[in-house]
Predict the structure.
Amino acid sequence: MASDKVKLMGAWQSPYAMRARIALNIKSVEYEYEEEDLLGNKSDLLLKSNPVYKKVPVLIHADRPLPESLLILHYIDEVWASGPAILPSDPYDRAIARFWAAYVDDKWFLHLRASVLLEGEGAKSATEEIGEGLVLLEEAFTMCGKGHKFFGGERIGYLDIALGSFLGWIRVAEQRNNASLIHESKTPKLSQWAQRFCADVAVKDVMHPTDRLFEFAQVLAAKHKASREN
Amino acid sequence: MVTSNVKVLGAWPSPFVSRVRMALKVKSVDYELIEANPHEKTELLIKSNPVHKKIPVLFHGEKRICESLIIVQYIDEVWTDGPNILPSDPYDRAIARFWAAYIDEKWFPLFQLLRDAQGEERRAVVQKISEGLSLLEGAFVDCSKGKAFFGGNNVGYLDIALAGCVGWTRACDILLGAKFLDETKIPHLVGWVERLYSDSSVKDLMPDPHILIELYKKFRAMSEAASE
């Protein structure tokens, strides 16, 4: 029988790797963590474990690799079923949580990425789009949270993790663009939620240190600019 | 099992709508199909899916669910006394979800590029689609474990995810002479496609490639006339 060892390949800057770490923390799963250098060469293990996308995170459980953070969240929830639930229990609530997490990754993230990497008009319009998306997510919070502290209810869940993992990067976008994205005046519920999320015991040790992330963003933006000019 | 409070907002040529209808068929759930032209953003479509303004949308009583793969999972989780759509093992479920997401995020969007590409650019897109099919061939071998479908003996999540795209793949084979479904390169997938056309859950919901080609030609003619 394969060993039940759990290994996670991640990177400190990656919100996606953070998602997996939060989930493992929620379920109190011990795991070995391996850091990939996002600015260096991809490791052999990464290329072997995720040949299709060659990206972190990859969860390796009982020698079987699994990439893609949202899939990893589902997997962790289903395997360690006796721990606190990550997905809601009701099928409709699950569908809504999945819908908004997919929206965050497929639509909203593109604007966040642009607002961090670009300058001038491109960054400005991307920053506005982030804000509009957050207004939608503020409405979603009212619907999903049902008056509780988190999207998941009284405890953090799937959608909290999906969106909360971007809080560090949202702060970077705010700094780079001199903007205010999650703020009491525009998104009061998300503003309070963000504080609660970052303070959660499963999150606080893996949340991005903003200063370090800001420096990394500067490096990324410079690289992006150089590659566009060539 | 008869359920009359289920409606699908969609159009039969859409691979995404087909998925939802196949899942409902697997679970023997009766539903009403409300035809919606995806190219016309009607008030109903915008109201039903304000974020993406796309089909399909599933209505179940007062509930409204969007995004085909999310709808298929919802159907599997609600109608639990029908055959399972997702595999029961968590790792197998993860792999099925992985490849379904790959189809939607990386592979099927290539067909949109194919529409407008010419010459060298078209050849490059055709090549990428074929490479994706090779990956899916490997996925079939891994997931099916020697059985008829990705889901094993019966049609499952990944079968449903890909089956809806088969009509358009075949339409491209015919229209462009692309030879995507080449049994010398992807023998398992070609065999799987043939089996889909005999499977009771999906065979009547696989769009006919010849009708898709006619539809496509009409659509192109209308767009070109509109832009003049």
